[in-house]
Input
Amino acid sequence: MKRAIITVTGVDHTGIVAGISSVLADFNVNILDITQTIMGDIFVMALLVDISGLEDVTPLVSKLSEEGDSLKVKVSFEREEIFRMMHRI
Amino acid sequence: MIFTTEEILETVRMIQLDHLDIRTITLGIDLLDCRRDSVKETVRLLSEKLKLTTDGFLDTVNKVGVEYGIPIVNKRVAITPVSLLLFSTDMEEYIYLAEKLDGVAKDIGLDFIGGYTCFLEYEVSQSDRALLKSIPAVLNETERLCSSIVPATTKAGINLDAIREVVPIILETARLKNNPSVCAKLIVICNPPPDNPFMAGAFHGIKRGNRVLNVGISGPGAIRSALEKLPENSDILSVVEEIKRISFKITRAGEFIGKEIANRMGIELVSVDTSLAPTPEEGDSIARIIERIGVERFGAPGTTGLLFLLNDALKKGGLMASSLVGGLSGSFIPVSEDKGIAEAVSSGAINLEKLESLTNVCSVGLDMIPIPGDVSPYTLMGIILDEMAIGVMSNKTTAVRIIPVPGKRAGEWLELGGLLGRAPIMDVNRFSCKALFERGGRIPPPISSYRN
Output
């Protein structure tokens, strides 16, 4: 299974979760796990998603970035292995 | 969630705020099998081979960059040194070859191609001389080709005659079109590694494989940022541990990305260079790391000690993370490319002599340093000799990438633009070393090179 972690950071307001997850639904990407927290006054959400069905992730990444811009949050997309390499031996 | 929010944010922050990136993916390509009697035939074959062997390279790199979410800044090729591909006494033949190489690099979409290289540590042959003479025209007429010249190694010693021939070439390169910035593509280097992915010194070493991948990962900003989170009064061992920890993480990520690209291309990843290469971005600076640990300005007493600490901890963390650590894998201190170092020069905190002493404890050498264009050739020879001596004696790579700026004086600024940054022109010691170079010859290798 190819998995990625999508991280959303910014000022909390309504509609962030809905906005991001609707983009994922459009691309048929399943959310495997989700965590969210407030650090200081910054909203942080991380989604673990299954991207096995995607041949090329570029359209998804640019759509997520567009959605982030309209929601005024920062969205980043990284394959899960990057985190595994950095944080697990 | 399989990772904590802190872990996820640490990685995302490194990439988004601290400029962690894969600084370069450098494809090493062996062109020895393209050698023929005629220059035309050689050039035709190597152009064909370059096109074939780089097919899909950029596309793969770009896809992996987006998918894994780490920016990949430069896509480069390092080739077999040109001095081994063409033996000619006609400078025009080298220019013809260089223009073709540059054209192919442009067609492929590479940022740089390295390997306009000659080895002069034992002798300057007639063909080396023709290649050398072509350098000013080549670097002024081409965009992507990088040149390296080797006048010294620990095994051979230091060829004073070679240095004497090289200096007028550097001065002419800066002068030819009154565009000194092209000197950024020219490096004089001692003990060059055969798997260096960084320019201008990259070339593909002999028998390093037909087509292999080298990756350079870099994150001075990530290290600076981690040190900023350490309490002010942390002891020095905590500083060392923190640098090792970050170096380990970024090297693991870099090796992983390199392997992924290599796998997709069906080739082997042979080297991961963990060098800390600064950029002019605020915070992506070696000087800021050193200042953070405990000196007022980069260059203050204590700087050499801290740069040693940084370089050593960087290597230890990197070596723990990957068995492929190679290339230079140390801290770079390029004056124009590091905003903090350029400011240190401007404020009088550091001079050329202190920069030279720093090169004892880091890679690569006197790097990206503008000097007045009216410098005496002998002075420049002496500067190169001193830097080569450090490399020869310490059995390490050292280099000189100096930019003589015609018509400008010390203290004025040179704007290079983009990743090359800007720097104040640095004064040089004007006392003469002419008598030394008039002696000529080769300084023999040090006793430490006699290992058998």
About this structure: Chain B touches chain A through 24 residues (CB under 8 Å).
